[in-house]
Design brief:
The complex is a heterodimer of chains A (215) and B (988).
Chain A lengths: L8 H27 L1 H4 L13 H7 L4 H4 L14 H8 L10 H9 L5 E2 L12 H7 L3 H5 L16 H9 L22 H12 L13
Helix pairs in contact in A: 5-6
Chain B lengths: L1 H21 L3 H8 L15 H18 L7 E2 L15 E9 L2 E10 L2 E7 L12 H10 L8 E3 L2 E3 L7 H5 L5 E5 L5 H13 L4 E4 L6 H11 L3 E5 L6 E5 L11 H9 L25 E6 L4 H5 L2 E4 L2 H14 L13 H13 L4 E5 L5 H13 L7 E5 L6 H10 L4 E5 L3 H4 L6 H5 L4 E6 L4 H5 L2 E4 L8 E4 L5 E4 L12 H10 L5 H9 L3 H10 L16 H10 L8 E5 L13 H5 L7 E2 L4 E3 L1 H7 L3 E3 L3 E11 L2 E9 L7 E5 L29 E2 L3 E13 L14 E3 H6 L28 E6 L8 H9 L7 H5 L8 E7 L6 E7 L18 E3 L5 E3 L9 H5 L6 E2 L10 H4 L14 E2 L5 H13 L18 H5 L5 E5 L6 H6 L4 E2 L11 E4 L1 E3 L7
Parallel strand pairs in B: 7-8, 7-15, 10-11, 10-13, 11-12, 15-16, 16-17, 20-26, 22-25, 29-40, 30-39
Antiparallel strand pairs in B: 2-3, 3-4, 5-6, 5-17, 9-14, 18-19, 20-27, 21-28, 23-24, 24-25, 24-28, 30-37, 31-32, 33-34, 35-36, 38-39
Helix pairs in contact in B: 4-24, 6-17, 7-12, 10-11, 10-12, 12-20
The chains are: A mainly alpha (215), B alpha/beta (988).
Chain lengths: 215, 988
Amino acid sequence: MALIFPKKLDLMVRVAGAVIAIGAGATAGGMLLLHHPDRIEPGYQPTQPIPYSHKLHAGNLGMDCLYCHNTVEKSSYAAVPATQTCMNCHSKVKAQSVVLEPLRQSYEADQPVPWVKIHRLPDYAYFNHSAHVSAGVSCVTCHGRIDQMVEVKQVKTLTMAWCLECHRNPAPNLRPAELVTKLDWKPERDPAEIGREIIAKKKINPPVNCSGCHR
Amino acid sequence: MIQIQGIGNQTGPKFWRSLQELSNTSKFQQWVAQEFPEGATDILDGKSRRNFIQLMAASMGLAGLTSCRRPVEKILPHAKSFEGMVHGNSLHFATAMPLAGRAYGLLVESFEGRPIKIEGNASHPASRGAATSIAQASVLNIYDPDRATEVLEKGKKANWDVLKDAPASLGDGEGFRILSGYVNSPTLAGLKAQLLAKGPKAKWVEYEPVSDETILEGSQIAFNESLRPHYDFKKANVVVALDSDFLHIDNGSLGWVKDFSARRKPTHKEGSGGSHGTAEHAEPGMNRLYSVETNFTLTGIAADHRLRVKPSDVANFVFDLARELGALTGLKILGQQDKFIKGLAKDLTENKGKAIVLAGPRQPAAVHAVVALINNTLGNSGETVVYTKEERRNGLAELVKEMNAGSVKSLLILGGNPVYDAPADFGFGAALKNVANSVYAGPEVNETAAACHCSLPESSYLEAWGDVAHPDGTVSIVQPLIEPLFSTKSAIELIGYVLTGKWQRGYEIVKAQWKLTDAAWKKALHDGVIAGVTAPILKPNAEKAKVEAAVNSASKSKGEIEVTFFPSASVFDGRFANNAWLHEAPDPVTKVVWDNAALMSPKTAKAMGVDTIQDNVGTYSQRITVEIDGRSIEAPVVVLPGHADGAVTLTLGYGRNIVGRVGKGIGYNAYAVRGSTTQGIAATATVRKAAGTNYMVTTQEHHDQAGRPIVQEASVQKYAEEPHFAKHDEEHVELFQLFDSHDYSKGSQWGMAIDLNACIGCNACLLACQSENNIPVVGKDQVAKGREMHWIRLDRYFTGSEEDPQAVYQPMACQQCENAPCESVCPVAATVHSPEGLNDMAYNRCVGTRYCANNCPYKVRRFNYLNWHKDMEEIQKMVHNPDVSVRMRGVMEKCNYCVQRIQEAKIKAKAEGRAKGEAGPYKVGEVLSACQQTCPADAIQFGDINDPASRVAQLKKDHRNYSLLHELNVRPRTTYLAKLRNPNPELA
């Protein structure tokens, strides 16, 4: 019986198969690398509806983080302040500024300012600010030097592996609770040593089991 | 295993034999041919495999596209801040739920302005911190997309202007009628009085399909005054329930359950034995409950002695009991129950002033009059039974007469659903056609709304200001949790408008009614009850002669087959017919979901030639025709062991015609045969077999324990002799352990102890769990495939003979085994142990192999076969608890001891800097699981077993404490306290 397909097709099929397989593998690998949270999460810096500068308020003017993010010691969320909090000053300071027009509109119309969320965890991760702040984890540990950022961007990966690094060895990231919002704090001694003392005093024992963060 | 098979052979063939005689239904034959129910392994539910692949391909493509860009999320803070609001923390508000003349004090959790979880209010005497399943499920009603949301005029969308002529049309009240449910709101009662003063010829009629009218009528006979009895179960050594399910369906106050159960928790002390309390024992002993009833109710299941009688024989029993006690004169009639009556009478006489006799509202007035007389004779009145005044409401018959005569010009129906639930002989629906102008205001679009010219949407109690008085006189302010979600008004606002022609806010009307000082108003809102408002307590004397006259003239009619009507444990009188949580909660006794059935005893069913064909999840129920006074319905039969012979129990509240999507086409309508003279029982009824079958789905097919010691039960006498009786099965050699034991002696270790003797099986825990843990509803078809998602189930085991069994409830959730067999088989470590002894579930890791469920000896793991949340509308998602992940398809889930509540308490303790002691930083009672918090019987205790002060640690030391399937060496953290019965030695 005559061959329907020539013999060399055998090789062609094999080569084509190999090319497709390698190509698919490379694409998948590449996607994985490119899409890995370590690569894509840090650096996220969306444009906000009002060009609010943390550098000006928290850095130059030295306002405490807690003035605006006032629920951070009581709640899982670090509340983004109500427009009213901004208006405490801005009804007098820069009251006519053009850039603050959306703020005044928000206040008058009783409508929220649509800030864009930067630090985002998946819905199944239940992070709690109050637990961390009361233990003595500074804002800077997760959010970086916000007081030097004109426009806020994400600097840490916020992945589970990154969380667990600290949950397994919290000492280097602990400081006395009253210094939590002092982002430029420089420890006089070895920070790990200070951390160990705090761990001993407060009996800090961060959970590394599933239900510590996932419910 | 051998035992299990043996038992299977015992029960299996019995059903199979009867099947073969009757199995002509094609569905059944199909089932026989298949090993598993149809679709048991079908993941796709109606979609073909090809469809599935197409969908997958599409979603893969989309996934590729979307992952390139991070979704932008917004943070929308308030423009103006609120006092006391901490973003992310829940707030709790006290309010109260009115229901058919009763009031349940509630504490509602509000998250970012939306009510999400309902708990009982500890300071309300009718709640005492517990909430019924219905009260808890009521939160779902405000997020129901099918609720009444707009004004409809002749079926067309209109607005509130349709009422603009209403204030003028009142005039002097000529031809103006209002029909409402029981007005137990003092503010609405005040408006009613104003309205009747303004239009003196107007009439306001109150009607409830499920009421205690006969009880009031009975007291009218006995005391010449319409009085309502209140009971103190704390003091009662002996309780006699006569056709009364006072623990559940006929419950007037959860305080009754609290007090009753408190007397069912004996702790063993040498010598005391837990029998009736005597003065020497500081702790009063266990009470004794007698139940004489037709249906097998939760009260009958809790009873130490139960007598099955026809509905009309309850009256004869009560009369005989009164004669035995010397309260009535005359000859006894029920010869064969003489021993029971004598034993009971002796027990009652020995406990004079420490007993309660009570009868259910289905029984006629004469029974209640005699019950009042008995309580009087025994000196219980004033001790365990007191009375408050309550007016009778029985104007519906006259109203219908007026409507038929055409003298009603305008009829305003406030709530309720009389077209559906008024006595069938009244023909309310037909009479309504004679009314020139009929307006309905209610929370749903129902039969009555559709029959009226105009229907108005009413606000839920969670949306509008109001107040409500419980029959014992306690008044609560109904405090809304949220602004009305739609343009709805409350009954108070509506009547206020009819009176004044102005829309006033409910808040102002209620505040004006009470005229409290600011401090008193705030306190009333905070506490959930208005301080110092009570009803005067009365201790009247019964008039024997009048009661005797009533007994002599009482109806003697007695039928071959009698019918009795019960409100549904799920949908009550029908008003919750669109509530999916309640439909999915299995009936406590029959375990039927999404249906109502006609219940009868095995003997009666056999005599009638009606059979039920069992498959492994449900029943092909043959149907019967029930005919009462010329009206008839057809209903499927569920054979209930323990039901009285010669009687049929029909469940009200189903078979709704005009209802939302959830309640459509479910069950039969028992109101269609319920006449004005047969509200409770119909002594003369014709019941015969009808053609066809209905497929009824149950969540518990097994009625026995397959020979294993799952439920441990003993009498108090045996318990006194042998306090460790429950532990005998645990005595065996140390079992081989596959893994090294973990040290659980340090830190907080969570555990649970469930007292089977206290549990009444009411489903409150099941609903609490559903609400707290975002548990989806799957529907009847999926329950039939065994896919129900409830994390806690109430196993009900019958013991004894098929005709006259006893039953026991066993709440069953994840046992949090220390040697958890599920953990060792998970290939992806999605279920692992926490250092505090919890069997954690990481949903996001789960790949859905279901090995864990397969390896669980307690069968408490639930698998998301489908994405149950997929078709939810936005408004329905508002009910979700933000502290718990909403699980998606392909994920296993189960009880986790409300780990979100544990974490919340832990974080709070840490933020407050509380020292972490040996047993952890928690205060006793700081962490309550949802089921524990709401249990009206306090049967579930949860806490830190390493903290010797915790209740659960103490219960674990109790003699009655035992663990389930101990021989498997899985070391469950949940243990059970054995069931006790306290039988009367005279009746043994």
